[in-house]
């Protein structure tokens, strides 16, 4: 409003006739007043009115100084108001309201006198009420007083200009004299009002209607102001507007019921007004409805809420009653219209709740819940039932509004996503955005909105919205697919795939099959997309292949870090395969047989990509190493390539889990032949893993070959080092070389490939050691160095549990080489000793007597240092002579000869033609106990067939270990010595390796003599080998 226009309106108001100003005074109660009657109580009543022209200047507001004058002396009788008399009490309660008119507030005062009503009684009656001496004194005082004169209890005098618009407090009762200064308190309420305003509205309309129109104007102004600033109004009036409204309601003396109802009624009629005010409106209407009609609370506020004295308000009450019927009918009609407006507005908000109560605003759920509660509260009211009987049940109305609103929201969204450029691809994108918005909306309904509607109205918003939207979406998607099915470009296929995934997510939001009432429009929706499956699979493979090629081309074949030993392309490849698995999970085709074929295609493409990657990464390594002069850098790249392949093998191995083969097998079990899944998917996977394994082994083999040359070179150098160098020092160059190289490989290879490399190197190292050992059989020193080298190599390759396990190290080749080096590194006498150990072991393992047996008794007398041998007999000897018999005798020798050089062999008597000779001969050998206790020490019993003309023939040999002879290990002389039966044996027909080794030592005479004797025995044995069935 322009300032000039405002000034003009203000001048017009000032020219109007002034209204009549009034003070609405309510005498509530009093407490602690004086007891003036003989009984100790009083019969109090109050006289009150407005005294004009007695304003007292001064600075102290509130109560005026005590005045001896009373109301009936200072105020005209027609302006004095009187309360009822409350008998026999010191705490009277009146709760009476009076309208007191005044002209000038500056010189007017409110006066109230409280009196004790006295009636004429006889002295006898008063004596009957006497209770104490204090009462007797009152009787004497009454006698001196005029008959029928009331007693003064106190007064309250207040200047009107010191009162606020509304006052409600306790005031002390003041005395006229100093007698009894404490006379109690009086509870008073004051409110300044006016009547008979000169405005047209005040003359023709009830005060409540004027107040309602004023509030409507203020609310319209607030809504307009906030809309201009693009903000929402919080429902609070500005301080200036609130002041105007408060003054109007106060001056018009509107009841609390009317003041509470007005904001709510306005909120019902104004669409943008906050609905929180409607709760106060409904609360006031509901609580005041039964009395509002009966007491005509809808008529003039002054007539409804004030109770003037009979002298001043009789004519006003009659006028109000004449108008009450008409006013009540009008206001009931307004109330019914307000109910209808609120219900219609509330349903319109519910229909548009998605936009009116967005979740982006934090208090939206609370506002919606308040709206529903307001509507529920209104529909439960008796007033609503009487004024709007034709309205249906609220849940039904809300459900219809929600269904209508959901459909409107769908079409609004569809229009919002309408593409600017008409085309199938753009239409597909718009449809996809629409479906995604619907999914988001259903999620919001499920998480927030449905709970609110269910808690307040028991309405399942989510199910209702899902059923409505899925039908609309199904129709729209089918129409779109029918249009694009003939032109399936890659971009269109990608769009359809995203649409399929979104529809699957939407479909999964719906109820499970067991909880449905009927068929859904989206049932079997996957069949709509069946023609697009080939393009989806081809797109997935093409994108993955392009990504693999790009990642390999950008790979510099450098490890990503100390703990991550593969390069960037392996990471990209893992991500690429994960994306393929994610696509398969997104697809999750419902039809089992088709799902199996799709999975087969995914596995086939993944395995093909793996082999393509191997070829590309090897080509990349050759490309980068072509210009490298540093062989170490080339080895680094080769290590990275092998690690990348190993990482790829691990990723490929996770395909059964990522593609959920177990779940697929359960689904297709009824439609596929038994074993078809195993023969198809697993065969593809195993083929890919086998190819990767071959590529990895080839790369590791290449790395191993680079190290094998150095290992062989250092092993061959061992045998050429000077004899003065200790074997432990001779192997140091080899061990340092391996330490450096293996540490390097361990740093650059993952554990699986490093273990494979160690296995290859260990096999090669054993082969080289065996070759060198074979060439140095006659050299104990070289063999000793090789033996120590083998021991150190085993420790090196084991690496305290971080290398090869013991079972991988101790192979058959290792054990054979270890035995050979043990023998080759031993001296000739040690070899002879080992030979007899082996013959003693052979003797212990022989149980059959195919060659016959000898029986002996042997003991050792430590006191005499004599070995006592009784040769008892022989049995089942072979007939070696032409006459079918033999001439046996036994030769006794203590072996090895170097341990018993002074003891010559002994012989028994020769028995003619006897295969079971009884010798019963005793022999004693003077020999200390120490050599007898050594390994290999034995009594060799050689059974020979005596020939007169030629050399004696060998019947067999028996070996008695001396360490087992009684008396050798103890100090006690043996008593009864047991017999020992020894089966006869032959030397090994193929030659003993110890003898072969001794034979190779041409320069060792002792070795040659021993070998010559043992060879002779072997030749004799070969001439008389037993025939089958002997």
Structure characterization notes:
Belongs to the unc-13 family. It holds the Pfam family MUN. Keywords: Calcium, Cytoplasm, Endosome, Exocytosis, Lysosome, Membrane, Metal-binding, Phosphoprotein, Repeat. The protein is of the alpha+beta class and 1030 residues long. The protein has five domains: 19-53 and 70-195, Immunoglobulin-like (Sandwich); 363-511, no CATH class; 533-698, Tetracycline Repressor, domain 2, CATH 1.10.357; 721-825, Methane Monooxygenase Hydroxylase, Chain G, domain 1; 846-1023, Immunoglobulin-like, CATH 2.60.40.150. 55% of the residues lie in helices and 12% in strands. It is built from 35 helices and 16 strands. It has a four-stranded antiparallel β-sheet, with no helix packed on it. A four-stranded antiparallel β-sheet has the order 3-2-5-6. Strand 14 and strand 15 (953-961) form a beta hairpin. Helix 19 (533-554) runs parallel beside helix 21 (592-625). The longest helix has 43 residues, at 676-718. The chain is elongated, with a radius of gyration of 62 Å. 32% of the residues are buried. Mean pLDDT is 83; it is low at 56-66 and 290-322.
